[in-house]
Amino acid sequence: MSNYCILTINPGSTSTKLAIFDHLKCVASETIQHSSAELARFKTIKAQFPFRLKLVERFLKKSAWIVERFDAIVGMGGASYSLTGGTYLIDQRLADDTLAGISGVQHPANLGPALAKFLADKAGIPAFLVNGPSMDEFQDLARITGKKGVYRQSRLHALNLKQTGYQFAKDHDLDYQQLNLIICHLGGGVSVSAHKNGRVIDGNDIAAGDGPMAPTRTGSLSVEAVLDLAFSGKYSKRELLNLNYKTGGFVDLFGTSNLKEIISRINQGEKKAALYWQGFIYQIAKEIGAMNSVLCGKTDAILLTGGIAHSQKLVVDLKNYCDSYAPFYVYPGEAEMTAMEMGAIRVLEHKEQSKHYSGKPVWSGFTF
Questions:
Q1: Among 103, 110, 252, 271, which has the highest number of CB atoms less than 10 A from its own CB?
Q2: Which fold has domain 5-135+337-348?
Q3: Mean pLDDT of successive 10-residue segments in the chain (368 residues)?
Q4: Does the fold of domain 157-334 match that of domain 5-135+337-348?
Q5: Which residues contact 81 (CB under 8 A, 6 or more apart)?
């Protein structure tokens, strides 16, 4: 049994999640909620660093832990240049690039590596990043579009997707590195991904609005439809981006993203709600079918994770479409904090080697 002590730090857009793991058990955790007004006083994500650091230090004091007791600290990944999956030792370059959002995405998760490194340096212990959102393991065929110089990008719920694959393999005494899996993260956004021999070789680009609709996202729209919206004069660019991330999907169709309320309306016989729900299931099923094709129909299992995977109705409805591809397994909820802990432990126990960030994208175009 592991005897390591790990601190995990996950800065989000509306919260800061913190957890302490000791001998594989979560012995203290806290989710600190932030109002939009509270964060509005910071002009940039980087400017939030002292504020978030104080929250971590307050949590440690309240939990009666000091940083010197930890074997490692793990920070949620941010917008570094793209990197392959695995656990990375956070050096100054990786901390600086994520804090700056070097890849162009500004999100509070960019604070994670810098916070972890700052605290770890005080204690003389390693800081790690595990399967960050900039992870890119796509095969070349997954990148191609019909426009020269425009490529599909790997932007998925990498941390939870990978952890679900590892957990499934552990549960069945299998090796994740030797499996073909379709893993779906079903939450505020929906990621459907193809895993082949431990690599995520394809999936929908959730940051760009690719793939199925979701509680707050429109999902894929035709190019013509997007152009019509953009040139209609009814929307600013910011409003269209919000439609992609915050105000589309269930919010636009149902007027709410609350799953319990939506299912209640379906059970009460509301035809419109039932139709939209089946459209949601249909789109996820289509994406699962696409990933099954990517794996040449040799899928070992289909895994569902994320908050919406708690819905038995969703699981049954998806099975009706996809049960013939491979057995279904459900891992409801998100295991991000555990995933961060386990990534560090795999390195500390020498089951994996830590990786080093090069400061360059792992892929930046074809060489021809």
A1: 110
A2: Nucleotidyltransferase; domain 5 (3.30.420)
A3: 91 91 96 88 94 98 97 93 95 96 87 98 97 93 96 93 96 98 94 97 93 94 96 95 90 92 95 96 98 98 95 96 97 93 96 95 90
A4: yes
A5: 97, 102, 103, 134, 357, 358, 359, 360, 361, 362
Pairing of strands 5-11, 180-186: unpaired
> In the block, which residue shows the tokens 């939506």?
262
Q: Tell me how far apart the alpha carbons of residues 338 and 127 are, in angstroms, rounded to a whole number.
A: 16
* CATH classification code of 157-334: 3.30.420.40
The neighbour count for residue 163, using CB atoms within 10 Å, is 26
Domain residue spans of the chain:
5-135+337-348, 157-334
At residue 40, the pLDDT reads 86
SS3 of the chain: the string is CCCCEEEEEEECCCEEEEEEEECCEEEEEEEEECCHHHHHCCCCCHHHHHHHHHHHHHHHHHCCCCHHHCCEEEECCCCCCCECCCEEECCHHHHHHHHHCCCCCCCHHHHHHHHHHHHHHHHCCCEEEECCCCECCCCHHHHECCCCCCECCCCCCHHHHHHHHHHHHHHCCCCHHHCEEEEEEECCCEEEEEEECCEEEEECCHHHCCCCCECCECCCCCHHHHHHHHCCCCCCHHHHHHHHHCCCCHHHHHCCCCHHHHHHHHHCCCHHHHHHHHHHHHHHHHHHHHHHHHCCCCCCEEEEEEHHHHCHHHHHHHHHHHCCCCCEEEEEECCHHHHHHHHHHHHHCCCCCCECCCCCCCCCCCCC
Q: Give which of 304, 339, 309 is closest to 323, Cα–Cα.
A: 304
User: Residue 266 corresponds to which tokens in the numbers above?
Assistant: 């379906």
Q: What's the half-sphere exposure (Cβ side, CA atoms, 13 Å) at 11? A: 29
Inter-residue contact 313 to 319 (CB < 8 Å): no
Give me the count of residues in the chain: 368
Contact 152, 143 (CB under 8 A): yes
